[in-house]
Write a structure and sequence with these properties.
The protein is built from nine helices and eleven strands. By secondary structure, it is of the alpha/beta class. Helix 1 packs parallel to helix 2. It is globular.
Length: about 250
C-alpha cells in the first residue's frame, strides 16, 4: 500500500486537460492508495463554499466518489484556496487538516504543509499572508455577497504586480511562474530546518514553490511536490521509500 500526495493543481474550468488528468487519477490510481493528501492550491482560486458552479460541483462529486470508495482524503489549505471550509469538507468527505500537520508516515515522523510559510525571504508575501488570513478579515469575507467576492478575485488576478505576494497569490490563471520567480520565492533552508526542529520531525512534504525534488537538510529530508501546469506531479510513499513522478496531461 502507498500513501499519495499532490498539490498545486490550480484547477479551473479553462484548463480541462488538468481537470481531466485529476479526474482520471481519482477514478483509477487513487482508489488503490492507503490515503490521499492534497497539500493546497487544489483550485486556481476558491472564494467560498457557496460558489457552486458546475465546474466546482463536478470536482466535489469526484472527490466524494473517492472517499465513498473507502479512501481517506486529507486537505491542507493553500494560498489560493484557504477559504475552503467545512461545507466543502462535508460535501466531499475530505478531512481538513491544520497547517502544519505531523503524521507518522511508515515509521518516519513527517511534517506536512502547503509551503508558502517557508518562503521567508519574500517579506511582502508573508505580510500579505498575515493580513489576508486574519480571522476578522476572513469573517468579513464570508459576509460578502458571492458576486462581490467574484469581482474581488477577478480584480486581484487582473491587477497583479508580478512580484511578491501578488505573483504567488493572484497570478494570471494557470500560467507557470518564471524562472526568476521560482528562485526568488523559494523556501529557505533556515525556515525548513526550524520547522522540522520545532515539530520533532525528520521528513517534510510540501508544495507551493513549483520546484519538485527531494532535498537533504541537516534536520532530515524535504520532498517538494510539483505543480500540474505542464504535467501531473504525484508523490507515492510506501514502507520501502518515496517515488516522486510526473504524468502527462490529457489532450485538450
Amino acid at each position: 500500500m502507498t500513501t499519495t500526495f499532490i498539490s498545486d493543481l490550480h484547477l479551473s474550468a479553462d484548463r480541462p486537460d488538468i481537470t481531466g488528468l485529476f479526474v482520471q487519477f481519482l477514478r483509477t490510481e487513487a482508489r488503490a492508495c492507503e490515503a490521499l493528501y492534497i497539500l493546497g492550491d487544489l483550485f486556481e482560486y476558491w472564494i467560498g463554499d457557496d460558489d457552486n458552479t458546475p465546474f466546482h460541483a463536478q470536482v466535489k462529486r469526484e472527490l466524494k466518489a473517492l472517499t465513498d470508495s473507502g479512501v481517506p482524503c486529507f486537505f491542507i489549505h493553500g494560498n489560493r484556496d484557504f477559504l475552503v471550509g467545512h461545507q466543502f469538507a462535508n460535501e466531499t468527505g475530505i478531512v481538513l487538516l491544520p497547517e502544519p500537520t505531523v503524521i507518522d508516515l511508515y515509521g518516519i515522523p513527517t511534517v506536512l504543509l502547503h509551503g508558502d510559510t517557508l518562503c521567508t525571504l519574500d517579506v511582502s508575501y508573508q505580510r500579505f499572508r498575515r493580513i489576508i488570513r486574519h480571522p476578522w478579515l476572513l469573517a468579513c469575507t464570508s459576509w460578502m455577497p458571492l458576486s462581490w467576492r467574484r469581482k474581488v478575485a477577478t480584480y486581484l488576478r487582473d491587477n497583479s504586480s508580478g512580484s511578491g505576494a501578488e505573483a504567488q497569490s493572484e497570478k494570471t490563471p494557470s500560467q507557470p511562474l518564471s524562472d526568476e520567480q521560482l528562485v526568488k520565492y523559494d523556501a529557505t533552508d533556515s525556515a525548513v530546518e526550524a520547522l522540522m526542529q520545532d515539530t520533532h520531525t525528520i521528513q517534510m512534504i510540501h508544495g507551493h514553490t513549483h520546484r519538485p525534488g527531494i532535498h537533504t537538510h541537516a534536520t532530515g529530508t524535504r520532498i517538494v511536490l510539483g505543480d500540474w501546469y505542464d504535467q501531473g506531479s504525484i508523490l507515492d510513499v510506501s514502507a520501502t521509500g518515496a517515488n516522486l513522478r510526473s504524468e502527462p496531461l490529457l489532450t485538450r
